[in-house]
Design brief:
With about 140 residues, the chain is of the alpha+beta class. The chain contains three helices and five strands; from the N terminus they run ββββαβαα. It has one domain: Double Stranded RNA Binding Domain. α1 (about 55-65) packs across α2.
């Protein structure tokens, strides 16, 4: 049993490490006593399941560079809830959404020609601006 991403990709929970700290979020006086903030650590490059998805890893790193440490470990934190288990589940959901998003290939852009009308309008404004600037020149008639 692990974190289900899609068919064939199920990240084992043994690969994910959690760390806990005192939260600055909601909780009143309880915040000072309980470590409810959760940090999730996972390295996609050393993962037994995700390591072959190199394109997805690169997309993730370019889209969210602040989430990665220097050694390539993904660090996700959550402190939205008052209790640790909810924050832990929230971290896992964030990881799941991030991986699903990175596995989606971006749509290739189809190059199109500008319309005849847009070309004509561009050239007309270009000619007007040229005429306007030419009129600014100071000419000495002798």
């Amino acid at each position: 049993m692990g974190l289900f991403i899609r068919q064939g990709i199920d990240i084992p929970l043994e690969e994910i490490t959690f760390s806990y700290a005192r939260s600055s979020g909601p909780g009143g006086q309880n915040v000072n006593k309980v470590s409810s903030k959760v940090f999730l650590f996972w390295n996609p490059e050393t993962s037994s399941v995700f390591a072959q998805e190199t394109e997805a890893i690169e997309r993730m790193k370019t889209a969210h560079p602040s989430l990665f440490s220097k050694d390539g470990t993904l660090v996700i934190s959550c402190q939205t809830s008052r209790d640790q288990p909810k924050n832990k589940m929230e971290c896992l959901k964030k990881l799941q959404n991030l991986l699903i998003q990175s596995l989606r290939r971006p749509k290739a852009r189809i190059a199109t020609k500008p319309t005849r009308g847009s070309v004509r309008r561009r050239l007309e404004t270009k000619a007007k601006n040229s005429e306007k600037k030419a009129g600014r020149k100071f000419r000495m008639d002798d």
